[in-house]
Amino acid sequence: MNKIPLGIYGITDSKSGKNKNILQYTEDLLQGGVKIIQYREKKKSMKEKYQEALLLKKLVDRYNGIFIINDHVDLAILVDAHGVHIGQDDLPISFIRSLLGENKIIGLSTHSIEEGKKAISDGADYIGIGPIFSTETKEDVISPIGMEYLKYAIENFKIPFVAIGGIKEKNIESLLDLGVERIALVSELVGDKNTYEKTLKIKNIIEKKIP
Ligand code: 3NM
Question: EC number(s) of the enzyme (predicted)?
């Protein structure tokens, strides 16, 4: 499956709804050229998450983007998202596949070569690889995994993967030079006062390497 676009993988964060309006934040990403958005919300109630996810799905649809829900398979079904992104402690991919069907996307966060290999044999459509650098965004995060796993994935994995964790404008080129084609950034985009301009800038850096 190659439904995971190259370039920036956009993720919402509770800060994108606190300091900024989450819809405006997401629209800034989309206008800046981001083609995939993951709704990642760890704090709000399910009712609030449902309402936000519904609005975000409509917005992402207007841009013909891909909308992924973090963690909540039920929410993904209810708002007809394109797929879900899950973690190592969530239900097995086979269970989630039986709920979502073959046409939906299932992404899994991985932190080691072994986890990556298992995700692929379990049927993940794409994987996250991280944290590449140290990050404060993920609360339960482990320390940076280093480059060995990333290099292994570039050379061996046939499914798309997204590099994540501590990725900033200043270190993005080093990843592109290695051969990384999909990059998730949270704080770098949420934290910027002009998310649209920052997104465009990063998109241009990526497109110089991956036309
Ligand atoms: N997942 P920032 S790291 C959501 O390693 C997430 O699986 C990670 O945020 C993983 O770009 C991470 O601000 C946080 O570092 C990424």
Answer: 2.5.1.3
**pLDDT (0 to 100) of residue 1:** 42
Divide the 211 residues of the chain into consecutive groups of 10 and give the mean pLDDT of each group: 86 79 96 98 94 98 98 98 97 97 97 98 98 87 88 97 97 96 96 95 94 75
Token pair for residue 198? 């920052």
For residue 86 and ligand 1, the question of a CB distance below 6 A is answered with no
C-beta atoms surrounding 98 within 10 Å: 9
> Domains in the chain, ordered, with CATH?
7-209 (3.20.20.70)
> How far apart are the CA of 185 and the centre of ligand 1, in A?
7
Alpha helices in 88-140 (DSSP H): 93-100, 113-122
Residues annotated within a binding site: 38-42, 70-71, 90, 109, 135-138, 166, 186-187
Q: Which of 52, 55, 28, 30 is nearest to 40 (CA)?
A: 52
Give ipTM to 2 decimals.
0.99
Q: Which residues are annotated as a binding site for Mg(2+)?
A: 71, 90
For ligand 1, say whether the CB of 112 is within 6 Å of any of its atoms: no
185 Cα nearest atom in ligand 1: 11
First to last CA, the chain: 21
With a CB cutoff of 8 Å and minimum separation 6, the contacts of 86 are 70, 71, 93, 96, 106, 107, 108, 109
Cβ of 14 closer than 6 Å to ligand 1, yes or no, is no
pTM, full prediction: 0.96
- Alpha carbons 182 and 162: distance in angstroms, whole number: 5
